[in-house]
Design brief:
Largest sheet: 6 strands, mixed
Number of domains: 3
CATH architecture of the largest domain: 3-Layer(aba) Sandwich
Radius of gyration: 25 Å
């Protein structure tokens, strides 16, 4: 992208230098600064704009693509758009081969750029003659003057991110940058970013997000290639190990499923004003899960890459009917709704740090609960649990006359009151208790347990939906 006030020569000069914007509502309660890198603001609407020109530049330099030639690529849609931008500016024809699980919007978008689009069946093995990989290779051999960039093997893919995306994050993330988190498909983005940071700031953790059903995360952990299983989120994960991914530059993988990916993408649109695709939902959901398990230095900054725009998915997960059809969510239910169904027990029973242990124990027994948060004003400073009080009391009965500081446990993890039930479910698979806070006022309003969620699901008959 041109510097300062210089004028761009073409649309390609506007690729890159995407902004970092804080996530405030969906990352509420996370004790770190979480910044989203808005790759969907590239002119073609995705991070893949970065590799389009890079791959074609290399092909032209090496004489693999001649003036007036044809670019043939296997794509989930976004790389096709990035290549279509280059083709429009430089006068190439384009043919894209896309699996039929991809959205109608993507197919129409590619055709709007003048591309010929060939749709192949999804779910066939990579070496099947009808896979999008095989069809693209065949067409590149058969069409005169055709060039197959093959983003899955082309080293200009990760190189583009090493030269642009990594330095941008380094520049804008600040001195407290502790981790960069993003989804992995061809692996070019995170491999290139990872290589940059391993060379320049090796303390920064590089975390890949992989959809359940993909082979990449398992291969990273076990070095075994398993069989892929179908999933609905588009543009990330693989059923092969691309040569464009370099695992040595990645530190960890986190797995997310379709439901949490789509629900988080919808939340990003409604709560942050970020109209993004399902893979962006995957990135943020995976980032929040990782941050819940990996303590970072106080004041740390984390950057999460949001790969593409939501305009490609209006007929899919942004459609309530589609979400209901796929059984992902009771659309209207949130953590606030769960609190409203708790029954006669108050949604929030608390103690403060000066409460005497005997009084706190009596309060637990009065309400028939076994645990409660300790609040200093609205600050979540700890928790107490009946079993721990009794254990310590048996060893030293004077404990009952002391302030609860002597028996306090770590604070409960938090969720916002507007968090969808599906997200609460995934959090409660890992945590026993969650403190619910109203993001509008910053006030704790209740506590949710696994018992509360199971009761709600059994009443509503929607266990399958989340």
């Amino acid at each position: 992208m041109p510097d300062g006030g210089s004028r761009p020569e073409s649309i390609l000069d506007l690729v890159g230098n995407t902004p970092l914007v804080p996530l405030r509502r969906v990352a509420y309660g996370v004790p770190y600064r979480v910044l989203a890198k808005l790759e969907y603001l590239n002119p073609g609407g995705s991070v893949k704009d970065r590799i389009g020109a890079a791959m074609i530049d290399r092909a032209e330099k090496e004489g693999l693509l001649k003036p007036g030639g044809t670019i043939v690529e296997a794509t989930s849609g976004n790389t096709g758009v990035g290549l279509a931008l280059v083709a429009a500016v430089r006068g190439y024809r384009v043919v894209f081969v896309i699996p039929d699980k991809m959205s109608t919007e993507k197919i129409r978008l590619l055709r709007a750029y003048g591309a010929r689009v060939v749709v192949t069946p999804a779910g066939v093995p990579p070496d099947h003659p009808m896979s999008h990989y095989s069809v693209a290779r065949r067409l590149s051999r058969e069409l005169p003057g055709a060039y197959y960039p093959n983003q899955y093997e082309n080293q200009a893919n990760p190189e583009a991110h090493y030269r642009t995306t990594g330095p941008e994050i380094d520049r804008d993330g600040g001195p407290e940058l502790a981790a960069v988190i993003g989804t992995v498909g061809t692996g070019g983005t995170m491999s290139g970013v990872g290589r940059y940071f391993k060379e320049h700031r090796p303390s920064v953790r590089i975390v890949g997000i992989d959809p359940a059903g993909s082979v990449l995360g398992t291969y990273f952990r076990t070095h075994e290639l398993i069989r892929a299983h179908p999933y609905l989120v588009e543009g990330i994960g693989e059923d092969i190990i691309p040569k464009s991914i370099h695992f040595q530059y990645l530190d960890e993988f986190v797995e997310v499923n379709d439901s949490e990916s789509f629900l988080m993408a919808r939340r990003l649109a409604r709560e942050e004003g970020m109209f993004v695709g399902g893979s962006s939902g995957s990135a943020v959901a995976g980032a929040l899960r990782w941050l819940g398990k990996r303590p970072l230095p106080e004041g740390a900054t984390v950057v999460v890459l949001l790969p593409d725009s939501g305009d490609r998915y209006l007929s899919k997960f942004y459609s309530d009917d589609w979400m209901r059809e796929k059984g992902f969510l009771d659309i209207g239910s949130t953590a606030r709704d769960l609190l409203a169904r708790k029954g006669p027990t108050p949604a929030l029973v608390t103690a403060d740090p000066t409460t005497v242990v005997r009084d706190a124990l009596a309060q637990l027994r009065h309400y028939g609960i076994s645990q409660m948060p300790v609040l200093a004003g609205t600050q979540n400073v700890g928790s107490i649990q009946e079993d721990e009080i009794l254990r310590r009391g048996l060893a030293d009965e004077t404990v009952f006359e002391r302030a609860i500081a002597s028996v306090v446990q770590p604070p409960f993890p938090e969720v916002g009151a507007d968090t969808p039930v599906a997200d609460v479910l995934h959090r409660l698979r890992e945590e026993k208790v969650l403190l619910v806070r109203d993001p509008a006022t910053g006030t704790p309003i209740g506590v949710l347990t696994r018992h509360d969620l199971v009761g709600f699901l059994s009443e509503q008959g929607v266990a399958h939906a989340v």
